[in-house]
Design brief:
There is one protein chain. By secondary structure, the protein is α/β, with parallel strands linked by helices. Helices cover 26% and strands 24% of the residues. It is built from 10 helices and 13 strands. The strands form 2 sheets. Strands 7-8-9-4-10-11-13-12 form an 8-stranded mixed β-sheet, with helices on both faces. The protein has a 5-stranded antiparallel β-sheet with strand order 1-6-5-2-3. Helix 4 packs parallel to helix 6, helix 5 crosses helix 6 and helix 6 runs parallel beside helix 7.
Length: 348
């Protein structure tokens, strides 16, 4: 353990109840510079204060419209993008608690193997000039997990079989695979270092529906086998309901509703969540749900609206309240459902 890492000893009994990852106040701003002197004139507030926990063996999904900050949040949590502000307590085992955002870059490597990502585009995320076997084995080499040679080749072959590919495809290049097969390679690469948490960044959105089902079932099987935790970033709500334990709905860089997936889907409390769910197609034409249209465009994250950011598009917004005061999240169900809306009905 690096001596300068900000860690805390954790009681074993208490650790069993503590989440694997606890994020509070996460912000990621991209500076806007203009003029010859490139003065700082503003910020794109891509992520503007996220608070959530991720338990061991759990799948938490981040959903919302394109541009709401889902991918930026996922990459900031892994520090592929450096967060502007916030705190992330990571607990790799029952004895240790690490402030992940405060670790110097020189001390990240011991924990990097625990936190992996599956990218949205399975072709762009693979180097077209090297074989998939070398792509998977590269992480093993960098982290000194295998001794090299036959040991590394055996580990790559084991991973390929684990994700439903033949071991002899290790010598092929990415262009020789279909989209679904390339995504399986991406999953094998994420599994190579035996991680505890995987960020799935739109991991199935680029795939055909039939291939989506195969990859999602593969992710669920791997989670059951290895006890993985997933931060699943998606916009397809039918996929989210199938794979998730909990769901967090994002709007303009903030979480507006979070809770157990069935509770949020069956009893949404935030108007934005209600509008998103009303747009889900129904397989049975007799099952009708009143459509709640979203008027106008998503506001600019450079200058978000005052008060509740959603009030400019909300069908129940009240002038003098929603446009002035940002609502604090309210506990609306004993199962742990929270909604940031002035009109959400709290329990009790």
């Amino acid at each position: 353990m690096p001596t300068s890492a900000p860690t805390t000893e954790v009681n074993e009994t208490a650790a069993a109840e503590l989440p694997l990852l606890e994020v509070s106040g996460l912000k990621k701003y991209f500076p806007i510079r203009s003029g010859i002197l490139q003065r700082h004139t503003g910020d794109v507030k891509a992520v503007d204060g996220l608070d959530f926990t991720l338990r061991r063996g759990e799948t938490l999904s981040l959903v919302g419209e394109s541009g709401c900050g889902k991918t930026t949040a996922g990459r900031s949590i892994l520090r592929l993008l450096e967060p502007t502000a916030g705190k992330a307590l990571y607990r790799p085992d029952e004895h240790t608690e690490v402030d992940w955002f405060e670790l110097p870059k020189s001390e990240l490597r011991p924990y990097r193997r625990d936190l992996q990502i599956i990218f949205q585009d399975p072709y762009a995320s693979l180097n077209p000039r090297i074989t998939v076997g070398n792509s998977i084995g590269e992480a093993l080499k960098v982290h000194g997990v295998s001794s090299g040679g036959k040991d590394r080749r055996d580990r790559v072959a084991e991973l390929l079989v684990k994700v439903g590919l033949r071991p002899d495809v290790a010598n092929r290049f990415p262009h020789e695979f279909s989209g679904g097969q390339r995504q399986r390679v991406g999953i094998a690469r994420a599994l190579a270092l035996n991680p505890k948490l995987i960020v799935c960044d739109e991991a199935v959105s680029a795939l055909d529906v039939s291939i989506q089902a195969q990859v999602i079932n593969l992710l669920k099987d791997l989670q059951a086998e290895f006890g993985l935790s997933y931060l699943f970033i998606a916009h397809d709500l039918s996929v989210v309901r199938y794979i998730s334990d909990r769901v967090a709905v994002m709007y303009l860089g903030r979480i507006v509703e979070i809770g157990p997936v069935d509770q949020v889907f069956d009893n949404p409390q935030h108007p934005y969540t209600q509008a998103l769910l009303s747009a889900i197609p129904r397989a049975n034409p007799k099952e009708r749900r009143e459509r709640i249209p979203l008027t106008g465009d998503v506001p600019s994250p450079i200058n978000p609206p005052s008060g509740c950011h959603f009030h400019t598009r909300c069908h129940i917004a009240e002038k003098g309240l929603c446009d002035i005061q940002y609502p604090e999240p309210r506990n609306v169900h004993e199962a742990g459902q929270y909604a940031a809306c002035h009109f959400a009905k709290p329990i009790g």
